[in-house]
Amino acid sequence: MCILFIYRNPNADIQSYRLIVASNRDETYKRPASSAQYWKEHPECLGGIDMEPGKEGGTWLALSMKGKAAVILNLVNEEKLNSSKKSRGPLISNFITSSDSIETYLNQLHKENTNGQPYSPYCLILLDLNNANTHYLSNGANSTGPKMCNSDIIGVGNGGLEHPYKKVEVGKEEFKHIVQNANVSKQNTLIEELINFLKSRRRCLPDPELQKDYPTIYEELSSIFVSENEYGTRTHSVLLIDGSNHVTFVEETLMSNLTWKRQQFQNELIYDNIY
Fold first, then answer.
1. Which region holds residue 57: left if phi is over 0, alpha if psi is between -120 and 50, else beta?
2. Which CATH number does the domain housing residue 236 bear?
């Protein structure tokens, strides 16, 4: 399980935010991964890195100071995972290190999907940090191809946009309340409110959609923050892009000693992006 919330304000001024992204990565606790860092071979890129043997180098959320960001979530109830399928993690790193536009990249992916579904089920969200354009693609059986998301508040869970869980719908309202009057001068307060939001253990029930997908453990998965035996929320991510193109990225990661490590990165978007 993972969850993602996005606030879009393409007309942001210097005191407001063009994009606010808040996301939880849920994963088995034993899966190795490194916390957020600038990438050695692409120093303009920032994000955590999957260290699972055979899947090294992939990621779940990352951004490039050249104006790109991407998030990927598993898409449930489509098919059982097959070891012959390609890993999904490189879909993010391949995009943010490329010169491809969002449209070109997603159209090519959709073409690959319709010709044989090479990847395990996913929901992929790509963002243009310069104008807040947000695009979505799933490789579900009923996918009609890439979509542009024009709403000011967007929420995505593991059911995709097509089958939102109740915690996504409830979370969108709570997220909207936090971000609707966000001001750059109160950024520290905003970050704390978003992290606390991502730590919410309030169960959003009843949820027939979630129960259908996870009949035995749906109650444990019905909150924004998940904790279920050897699986749960391991990373909170907050991305802020203000109207002056200043980037703030905050990540909280659950460490092996069960404490949370917070990192905060500040940067500026690079204007000479070529895509």
1. left
2. 3.60.60.10
